[in-house]
Amino acid sequence: MLTVAIFLPAAAAVALPAVPRRAVPWTWIAVALAEVALVTWMWVSHGTGAGTSYETSTRWIPSVGAGYHVGVDGLSLPLLALTAVLFAACAVYSLRQARRPRAFAVLFLFLETVCLGLFAALDLLLFFVFFDLSIVGMYFVILLWGHGDRSRSALKFFLYTFLGSLVLLLGFIGLYLGADPNTFDMVELTRDPPLHGGPAGLTLLAVGIGLGIKTPVVPFHTWLPPAHTDAPAAGSAILAGVMLKMGAYGFVRIAMPMLPDAWRRYALVVLIVGLVGVLYGALVALAQDDVKRLVAYTSVNHMGYVVLALGAAGYASGDAAARRLAVTGAVTQMVSHGLITGALFLLCGVLYDRAGSYGLGRFGGIAGRAPAFAGLTAVAAFASLGLPGLSGFIAEFQIFAGTIGSGTAAAAVAGALAITGILITAALFLRVLHRAVLGPPGELTGRVTDVRRPELAALLPLLLLSLLIGVAPRGLLDTIEPLSAAVTALVGR
Amino acid sequence: MIRLAGPAVDGLSAVLLVTLAAVLAAVLLFAAGERYGARFHGLMLLFAAAMAVTVTATDLLMLLMGWEVMGAMSYALIAYVWPDADRVRSAGVAFLTTRAADMGLYAAAGFALAGAGSLRLDALARADGPWRDLVAAGIVVSALGKSAQLPFSFWLARAMAGPSPVSALLHSATMVAAGAYLLMRVHPLLAATGWAEALVSWAGAATALVLGAVALAQRDLKQLLAASTCSQIGFMVLGAGAGSVSGGTAQLVAHAAVKSLLFLCAGAWLSALGTERLDGLRGAARRHRVAGAAFGAGALALAGVPPLSLWVTKDAVLAGLPAGLLAVGLAASVLSAAYAAKALFAVFRPAEGAAVRVPVLGQVPLVVLAVASGVLGVLGLPAVAGAWNRMLGAPDGGGADARLLVLSGALAVVAVAAVGAARRVPAPAWAAEWLYLERAAVAVVVRPAFAAARALARFDDRIVDGAVRGVARGGRRAAGLTGRRAEIRVDGAVSAIGRAARGLGALARYPQTGQVHVYFAQAAVVLAVLVAVALLAG
């Protein structure tokens, strides 16, 4: 079942060249919606219990102890669901894709398999393969369908994140060599953490840099703004919504449970890196005049909260309930950020589609010509700045409360300082609203027509889901909580 | 794991809810005459709902949710006329200022979890050690921000950019009232810290006094009313700090009626006359009997003239205060009387002008609120005060003290008369400009933040990304270098070997002539060499 869910998009991608041209977008949408249904079904049947469901393990490369081992639990299910939903939204959004629609659909279906596979992988080598393939897929998306200085941005994205994946591979090899018998299997590595002392620290450094580049953490984030600016809207939505989560997911899935004592030892470093990401990302975003770059930098800020919370979870002396809360908040933030930033990037795409520019200063008073667009932008912006009733608040409140509430001085101070992030984020989104959406009309406002039906159909579910999580988060939180309890316990041993 | 403690209503919440519902109904009824659209009504209802959540929340999480949504809705309502860049900017200032203060509540939630292991409001006072002080500090900052107390008062001046019905609601039963409510709600926590009570009392008293002077200096009716809101809320905050929860609540209810009434009148004149400036409104009250009379009643109540409501409720707050606070409080009441009189005389001075029309639908709430402004003082009467105190769970006794009532009533009447007699009221620039608070905030917080943001953005482009580009450039240069230098050498060495092999091959070709006699000669030479070697080795 899980394997079918993972490889269905790839199978569809293979079959797509045989589909008549006019049916291509609808086939893509049908497959994407089928994925949503499959993942929803798996979530419902997994319920909110602890443990792994739909586990499959087969020999793959037995000579190095790597298997095709996949399964879903409270960490992967929310992210799988996010992946399926975002890809479906992109499929709907791209209904009118004019440039090479067939190849576009093939590439996105391929990427969907890769992303789903990564979040389901229970083997380090399998994880790594999906991790690398995602980079390759996104490289072509930016290169072939991007705009502006796209080949340069695509190359920078590829080389930077590929370099990160190589460092990550070094870390994985470290884990492999440390395990006895040598294995890449995540379940075994988690059960019996292989490394201690100095080697564990070095391995954590390699894994941390590898995952950190993808997350991204400051100072390894500079591939992100150009990649986002020049990628097509759907590509940006996937890149920010799904692929950034791979890094953060890796921290929770691999770094924390497999290198617990190193994680505890360097918890302060993680905490500080997270805090710097929060404040630095928010401040740099505040100074941007290109709205897509601005949203890209808010991703640095939002993923900074995740890293901060995971750092606080590394303080074994802290209150266990609060640390669990921080981890739950971090996972919620991954989902919430995926939905909200996905929506924000699609909205940027609408703007670019109409006016060919992302320049904040060239718009103004869009609300007059495009009320639905303005309303969606306002909701997405307030969601992103953490308004209660939308998902961002649920995530960030848990992160702050968990981080400060863990009760250790370092975590409390870092958490309290990180709260400043929500004020800066509020300031920068109000700046966007004031300069582009409200006020008197600007130079390019005349070109902005309202959202079309496919665009609305792609955006509305994302924001409605954010609202659902904001108002009734229990279903999501109940799924995550057994997992965060497990991770907190694993880090604490 | 956090589970929401559900909402609950006790005496204090009930009073706030009833006040909210009454003012909301009055304001919406009035607004119905002005034909606002669906967006306005939706936002107003959400605004009120958020306040309802805030006052019924039993834990910090739910409180914070209502609190923040209320702030966001106030933003959307202040920026209701969105094509006007000034109004939008004002809305932004209001939202960001209150959100800056709200950070205290976020932090307080974390501290509460660390110190008490719970977010419940009634558990906060039992938090241990330094956490309790931190929780109190966070809550006090948030409450002072939301209630536009010093030093956050300036956002309320900006909030005037919204439509008048919005001001009428925002200044009475929502938003600014929430801060005072929260401080009364967590009074046990304030008392437990040992310092928070005094801090809150003095913050309230100082705001009541200083913003009273600011109100007196305003030349614009809505600005005058805005500053007077800060000043009147100051009395509630003073009550919360000094432990007079029943007095503070009575003040809150009476003020809600008075202030929503005054704003609705101001709104009626604004839409009829197109101005809010006091000199432009000269005689406005004489041109519509109901609105004029209602405004007169409200302004006299605001002045604290006996026997109207605020006279009693304010004294209920002031009763039993230590001498210092009492003196400041009385001085602030004199200022209230003065600024209320200033507004009163401005709109009642006879002058010619166009008639004012107020829709019948709009007149009903004016009359109801005017009556309420007059009679809500009964909350301080001994007969009612007992029941009032019991409902709020406050200790019996308290209530207004007779000597104080006489003194403050006399002071108010004298102050009103003095303003009426004086031709001009002093209006120093610092007071007219709201103590330059906004300018100070811009200079101290906003500009440095933007400067830091721009500097960091440059740093990000040049240094952080520059380093990445440098590595890439370094890689390319190294590639070029190996291409030009090392590659040539290595390649040269390879070619040299090739050349040598070719040379050797050419040499080796010499003997192979294909002629039998040459091979025979070679064989003879080799044989001779072998014989020689055998002999020598022999």
The 3D shape of chain B can be described as elongated
What is the number of E strands of chain A? 2
State the end-to-end distance of chain A.
34 Å
User: What average pLDDT do the residues of chain A reach?
Assistant: 93
Biggest interface: chains and residue counts?
A: A-B, 57 and 46 residues
Given as residue ranges, the uncertain stretches of chain B (5+ residues, pLDDT < 50) are none
Structural class of chain B: mainly alpha
Oligomer: heterodimer
Helical residue percent band of chain B? over 70%
Listing every helix as H and every strand as E from the N terminus to the C terminus, the arrangement of chain A reads HHEEHHHHHHHHHHHHHHHHHHH
Q: What is the tally of helical segments of chain A? A: 21
Share of residues in helices of chain A: over 70%
SSE run of chain B: HHHHHHHHHHHHHHHHHHHHH
Give the structural class of chain A: mainly alpha
Please state the overall shape of chain A, judged from the principal axes of the Cα atoms.
globular
Q: What is the arithmetic mean of pLDDT of chain B?
A: 89
Write the layout of secondary structure elements.
The complex is a heterodimer of chains A (493) and B (538).
Chain A: H1 2-15, H2 24-46, E1 53-61, E2 66-72, H3 76-93, H4 101-120, H5 124-145, H6 150-178, H7 186-191, H8 197-214, H9 224-230, H10 233-258, H11 260-265, H12 267-286, H13 291-313, H14 320-355, H15 366-369, H16 371-384, H17 391-405, H18 409-418, H19 420-437, H20 453-471, H21 474-492
Antiparallel strand pairs in A: 1-2
Helix pairs in contact in A: 1-2, 1-4, 2-3, 2-4, 3-4, 3-10, 3-14, 3-20, 4-5, 5-6, 5-10, 6-8, 6-9, 8-10, 9-13, 10-13, 10-14, 10-21, 12-13, 12-18, 12-19, 13-14, 13-17, 13-18, 14-16, 14-17, 14-20, 14-21, 16-19, 16-20, 17-18, 17-20
Chain B: H1 11-32, H2 38-56, H3 60-78, H4 85-116, H5 129-146, H6 154-158, H7 164-170, H8 176-185, H9 187-193, H10 196-217, H11 221-242, H12 245-273, H13 289-303, H14 309-318, H15 323-348, H16 360-375, H17 382-392, H18 402-421, H19 429-432, H20 437-509, H21 516-537
Helix pairs in contact in B: 1-2, 1-7, 1-12, 1-16, 2-3, 3-4, 4-5, 5-8, 7-12, 8-11, 8-12, 10-11, 10-15, 11-12, 11-15, 12-13, 12-14, 12-16, 13-15, 13-16, 14-18, 15-18
